[in-house]
Design goal:
Layout lengths: L2 H18 L7 H22 L5 H24 L1
Helix pairs in contact: 1-2, 1-3, 2-3
């Protein structure tokens, strides 16, 4: 998937992570940006534990997990 597709997946992941982390979000725009970063972080996390995903759904799951992790870490520093 190209760069634009990865950004779209990251934006969707940021939206989903914002809904999952009720009260842990930073607003729509920041959640979307953190979702893009979360896609990268999710890839690193999944690679570290040996999980490999394929296809758009796999990339979306990876990105959502990463975005939730990034939002969780960011919420710790927010307090």
């Amino acid at each position: 998937m190209g760069l634009i597709g990865s950004i779209i997946i990251g934006i969707l992941a940021g939206f989903a992570a914002g809904k999952i982390m009720k009260g842990g979000g930073f607003g729509c725009l920041v959640n979307l940006i953190l979702g893009i970063v979360g896609g990268f972080v999710g890839g690193l996390l999944f690679e570290a534990v040996g999980i490999h995903t394929t296809g758009i759904i796999g990339q979306l799951i990876t990105a959502v997990v990463g975005a939730v992790a990034v939002l969780w870490i960011a919420s710790i520093f927010k307090k």
